[in-house]
Design goal:
The protein has 686 residues and is α+β, with helices and mostly antiparallel strands. 45% of the residues lie in helices and 12% in strands. It contains 23 helices and 13 strands. Strands 6-2-1-4-3-10 form a six-stranded antiparallel beta sheet. A hairpin with a 7-residue loop joins strand 7 and strand 8. The protein is elongated, with a radius of gyration of 35 Å. It starts with a helix and ends with a helix. The relative contact order is 0.09.
Length: 686
């Protein structure tokens, strides 16, 4: 009889394998490796392939451009501006000329070392018509401005910024529309004359002095990296006495201090002041930042013989460009976020709607990598989104008819492949997310405004742009998007977005688990324990029997707890991360990882399970388990972290939570996980 029973079971297995397509050409079961390949092909083949539309924009002359005034304000900035105005400087204003209408960009504030807080605002002034020659003059000034303000002054490798006109004809090459910075007069009209003068002055050969009107920007030959604002003759000569008694005259001072021996005693001296600090990084402030007292540089005197005009000799232009790179960096970040929202609205209905409601500030956080060194990046949302994706794919595998019957090991392998960095990177590329990732920090070596290229002076070679984001970064952004959707719109929307962008199955068949089991009697005592332990009711008694059945119960007419434990692990992971994410203080990801590991470790879950008597409801056929339970009880007298708990206890804790998740849904499962973890969460809160 036993042999006949084994033959019938073997025949049933062969029939089952044949129905699933798991037999080879000789009607023998596939090898483990072939079976894995089949499962992956079967499972991943059901995932929706993402399709998206791409649009391009072409421009023709005359261009219809949009003019935006760049307004800068602040007590220190205004004081410097009025000082230049009182000394005869012509104060033009910067403006942004964009070939596409820009979205509303809120005011930005930055702190300057010499001028304190400077506020930037963009004011729209309407549309302007620009001819090909005028656009060339605007972009020439724009390049000149950044060659003097942002280019690294390397002696061996001389490069300069040039505007790439090809990018104006393919709007899809960048999420940022073509734009340039120009000068406008007091009537907010583009000042082509002043821009031509600035470009011509920048082209003057080194050592030549241009216009002698003051104020001007000079750089001493003995220290060319430092610039001074020169206001005009002081009335003193080099032979006159030096204010400091350490030196007998200005002639003596320049000779001893800088080794300048070519000065004539009758050379005129000019009143000068060291130019403001030109920062190469950013200091972003929140709205309403407080002003601080700043120290103003003292005046000094310089001889013209040892100086040359700076490439950008107009101090009013230099003043306005002090924090211009920092502001444009923030503007381009904002424009990239807005473009990403539009991209999603055009291609992904659910995701586009969610991101539109979330707003560009939240989207910028999702797209920003840690390398940008900004106050906010995607790390926290990616950490949370990883748990969201884990639970989304867990539900898909449990509900899909071709995978729901599989052993926990196969399910774990499939979920690992579905959520691997390689697959997430492929999803990011298929969805076009990789074109919008903000990974470039603000420094002169790596960042340059959109459409500007660095070219060598002696040939046409172009310095390569910063490398595209790595596969790991692309995968992190996908998880950060899921984290944002979960935080602001809940788990159901996260599932919809996952389906929409191809992270999980489409139209997963809802499978009734009861069809696989023989009849099991209700156990009122077990139901009461589970309800009291998880704080949630369970309507299906068969799930309870599965949740407490050890794999050693081979003759019991139900599966062991391993699959429910696998599902409960994902539910506990998300519950713990969600609670830690929403703590009042925003903890860093390394701290969050440590706390999560503490909350969800085997020691913590075993301790909670033992205190509630979970070990008493486990159905097993292992003679050594009762002794291990007693040994663990004794170990607890020496402290929690000095214990080696039987793994079956934390496994059953997770399987009970998994039973609630499968029976009652995600929200009930999350509440059950939080209810079970409450003693630990309370201790962390203290």
């Amino acid at each position: 009889n036993a042999k006949r029973k084994m033959n019938l079971l073997a025949l049933a297995s062969i029939v089952r394998l044949h129905k699933l397509g798991l037999l080879n050409d000789r009607l023998l079961p596939l090898s483990m490796e072939d079976m894995m390949s089949w499962l992956l092909k079967k499972t991943l083949g059901t995932i929706h392939r993402v399709t998206r539309t791409s649009s391009s924009v072409t421009y023709s002359y005359p261009l219809t451009a949009h003019l935006y005034i760049l307004n800068q304000s602040g007590s220190g900035f205004e004081a410097e501006r009025q000082d230049l105005l009182s000394r005869g400087a012509r104060l033009n204003q910067f403006a942004l000329v964009s070939l596409a209408e820009l979205p509303e960009i809120k005011a930005q504030s930055s702190r300057h070392r010499d001028m304190g807080v400077i506020d930037f605002t963009i004011i729209r002034r309407g549309e302007v018509s620009i001819s090909a020659q005028q656009w060339n003059e605007i972009t020439s000034f724009y390049c000149t401005l950044f060659n003097s303000r942002w280019r690294r002054q390397k002696k061996k490798k001389k490069r300069s910024f040039q505007y790439d006109p090809r990018l104006d004809r393919c709007g899809s090459a960048s999420p940022i529309p073509p734009y340039a910075v120009c000068l406008v007069d007091t009537l907010d009209q583009i000042d082509y004359t002043s821009m031509k003068c600035a470009v011509c002055q920048h082209a003057v050969s080194k050592g030549e002095m241009g216009s002698q009107s003051f104020p001007r920007m000079w750089s001493p030959n003995y220290n060319p990296s430092v610039s001074y604002i020169v206001y005009g003759p002081s009335g003193n000569l080099c032979r006159d006495g030096f204010p400091n008694t350490e030196y007998t005259s200005f002639l003596h001072y320049f000779s001893e201090k800088y080794g300048v021996t070519t000065l004539c005693p009758t050379s005129k001296l000019f009143v000068a002041k060291r130019v403001w600090d030109m920062p190469h990084s950013h200091s972003v402030l929140g709205p309403g930042a407080a002003e601080e007292d700043v120290a103003h540089a003292a005046n000094l005197e310089l001889p013209a013989e040892v100086c040359q005009e700076s490439p950008m000799a107009d101090p009013s232009i230099v003043l306005q460009s002090t924090l211009l790179p920092q502001f444009l960096y923030l503007v381009e970040r904002r424009l990239t976020a807005e473009a990403f929202i539009r991209h999603c609205q055009e291609n992904y209905e659910v995701l586009g709607e969610c991101l539109s409601r979330a707003g560009p500030d939240s989207v910028m956080e999702v797209l920003t990598t840690k390398t940008c060194r900004m106050p906010q990046d995607y790390e926290r949302l990616e950490w949370l989104g990883d748990a969201v994706l884990k639970l989304v794919q867990t539900d898909s595998l449990l509900q899909y008819s071709d995978t729901s019957y599989l052993h926990e090991g196969y399910l774990h392998m499939l979920r690992s492949v579905m959520g691997s960095n390689e697959r997430l990177e492929r999803v990011a590329e298929e969805c076009g997310f990789n074109h919008f990732i903000l990974s470039c920090p603000l420094n002169r070596e790596e960042w340059r405004p959109s459409r500007l290229q660095l070219r060598k002076h002696d040939d046409s070679s172009t310095k390569a742009l910063p490398p595209t984001p790595s596969g790991k970064v692309c995968a992190d952004v996908v998880e950060a998007i899921l984290g944002l959707i979960f935080v602001q719109f809940g788990f159901a929307k996260s599932v919809e977005v996952s389906l929409e962008i191809g992270l999980t199955f489409v139209n997963a068949d809802k499978l009734s688990r009861r069809d696989f089991w023989s009849a099991l009697e209700d156990d009122g005592e077990l139901l009461a324990f589970a309800t009291n332990f998880t704080g949630q009711p369970i309507s299906d008694p068969r799930l309870l029997h599965e949740a407490v059945t050890h794999p050693s119960c081979v003759s019991k007419p139900c599966r062991s707890y391993q699959t429910l434990e696998w599902a409960g692990d994902a539910a506990v992971c998300l519950a713990a991360r969600n609670w830690l994410f929403h703590k009042k203080e925003k903890l860093s990801v390394p701290t969050l990882v440590v706390l999560e590991s503490t909350l969800t470790s085997n020691q913590s879950l075993a301790y909670i399970g033992h205190l509630n008597g979970v070990q008493r409801i486990i159905d097993h056929r292992m003679s050594e388990l009762p002794g291990r339970f007693e040994s663990y009880k004794f170990q607890l007298t020496r402290g929690l972290w000095a214990t080696d708990p039987p793994k079956v206890i934390p496994d059953v804790v997770e399987s009970l939570i998994g039973a609630v998740h499968v029976d009652q849904g995600v929200e009930a499962g999350q509440e059950a996980a939080a209810y079970v973890l409450r003693p630990l969460l309370d201790s962390v809160s203290k």
